[in-house]
């Protein structure tokens, strides 16, 4: 069997959070078709002692607990060295550059990603200094942990891996795709709903006219994004 195009290793204190996510829909199909391999690793497996301690109180005082450098660095280094290539290490952090589709395209072109999920008050700074990861935020807000952020990254990246989407054109037409802007309006049956009709061109059978209409609508799509203006 050929190697998957993309391998993703997730380092987390809560591997079970990914159970449902990895067992359904597009991500599941990508794994089943061996297009993507996703492994989860429990950071506690690198914590010493009976209590498997991974966090401790912050020096200098303050609330909460901080992830300790020794187990987290050991885990990341061990997972990185496990297979070739070492891959791109990404630390999910609200302090990182914000994820956008351009970054998603870059990540999807990598052969291997290692996603490190934080918890509690976050990471001992030396983890970042030693591992020199790329930081990545999914938005300017604070989650309780990096797992949901890692799922966002996995979901967005996996659908761009060749062969994952049934029709490779979907990713091209979509919002933020190579065409730029937002996707054209979509309709399905019924043809009339509460007095609103599907635009005639879409049922005309004239493929050139449909393509033209979609190109034009793409530019002028009334956006829910306040940064874009409504067409007059
Ligand atoms: N004390 C940290 C701060 O103020 O920057 C926040 C820590 S947060 C409660 C715990 C973990 O959730 C982080 O280490 C990170 O892995 C993850 N996280 C929280 N918000 C995130 C975001 N917007 N994007 C990516 N990861 C996030």
Entry summary:
With 232 residues, the protein is of the alpha/beta class.
Write the layout of secondary structure elements.
Layout: E1 6-12, H1 19-22, H2 25-32, E2 36-42, E3 55-56, E4 66-67, H3 69-82, E5 88-92, H4 101-108, E6 112-116, H5 125-131, E7 134-136, H6 146-158, H7 169-173, E8 192-193, E9 196-197, H8 207-220
Parallel strand pairs: 1-2, 1-6, 5-6, 5-7
Antiparallel strand pairs: 3-4, 8-9
The structure holds S-adenosylmethionine.
Descriptive report:
This protein is an alpha/beta fold. It has two domains: 153 residues, Alpha/beta knot; 37 residues, Trp Operon Repressor, Chain A (Orthogonal Bundle), CATH 1.10.1270.20. Helices cover 31% and strands 15% of the residues. Strand 8 and strand 9 form a beta hairpin. The N and C termini lie far apart (55 Å). The model has no long low-confidence stretch (mean pLDDT 93). The site of S-adenosylmethionine has 20 residues, from helix 6. S-adenosylmethionine binds next to helix 6.
């Amino acid at each position: 069997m050929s190697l998957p195009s993309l391998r993703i290793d997730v380092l987390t204190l809560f591997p079970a959070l990914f159970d449902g996510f990895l067992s359904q829909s597009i991500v599941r199909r990508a794994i089943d078709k061996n297009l993507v391999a996703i492994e989860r690793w429990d950071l506690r497996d690198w914590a010493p002692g009976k209590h498997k301690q991974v966090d401790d109180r912050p020096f200098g005082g303050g609330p909460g607990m901080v992830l300790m450098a020794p187990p987290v660095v050991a885990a990341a280094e061990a997972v990185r060295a496990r297979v070739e290539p070492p891959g791109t290490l990404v630390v999910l952090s609200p302090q990182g550059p914000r994820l956008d589709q351009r970054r998603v395209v870059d990540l999807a072109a990598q052969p291997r990603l290692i996603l490190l999920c934080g918890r509690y008050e976050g990471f001992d700074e030396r983890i970042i200094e030693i591992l020199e990861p790329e930081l990545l935020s999914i938005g300017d807000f604070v989650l309780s942990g990096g797992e949901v952020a890692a799922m966002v990254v996995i979901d967005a990246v996996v659908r761009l891996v060749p062969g994952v989407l049934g029709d490779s054109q979907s990713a091209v037409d979509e919002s933020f795709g190579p065409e730029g802007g937002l996707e054209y309006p979509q309709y399905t049956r019924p043809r009339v709903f509460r007095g609103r009709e599907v635009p005639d061109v879409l049922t005309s059978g004239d493929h050139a006219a449909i393509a033209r209409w979609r190109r034009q609508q793409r530019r002028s799509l009334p956006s829910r994004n306040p940064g874009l203006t409504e067409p007059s």
